[in-house]
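Let's study a protein:

___
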Amino acid sequence: MFAKYSGIVAMFATGIVVRDIAPLLNNKWEDPAVVVVDSALNFAIPLLGGHHGANELVRKIAEIGPIPVVTTATEVHGRNSVEGIARKLGCDIVNKESTLDVNCALLDQDVEVLRLKGPKIVIVDNDVSVLKAEDAEQREKK
C-alpha cells in the first residue's frame, strides 16, 4: 500500500504507525501522505507529508469530528509554502532541495514569485525554488 497510494489514513496509535512505516521511508517527494487518527476519533494527525497532502487530508477528516493537529511550520503560522504555491499554480518544483531554504524564508517574509516567459536561461542560487508550469497537454492528462 505504501508505494501504491498517495495518501494513507491509519486508525492506530502513532507509535504503531511510525514503527510500521519506518523501514519504508524514502524521501518527502516519493513517500505518501500518512495520517494517523486515534480510535476514539478525537484527533487526526498528519504524520508524514504535511505539504504533500496530509494537511489537506486531516482537514477533510475533521469534517466528521476529529480535531486536525497540523504542525507544519508554514501552515501553523498562516504562511504559504513552496509546495502549496506550486500546487496552486499547477507547477512542478524543479529543484526540490531548495524548498527547505525557501520555506524557512516564507516564515519570516513574503517571497516574490516571478514568472519568466522564454526563451530564457535562468541561473539560480540554492535558496531559490524553480517552478515549471505544466503545459496544456500535461494538464489534460491529469
Remarks:
- Residues 79-141 form one domain.
- The chain has a mean pLDDT of 92.
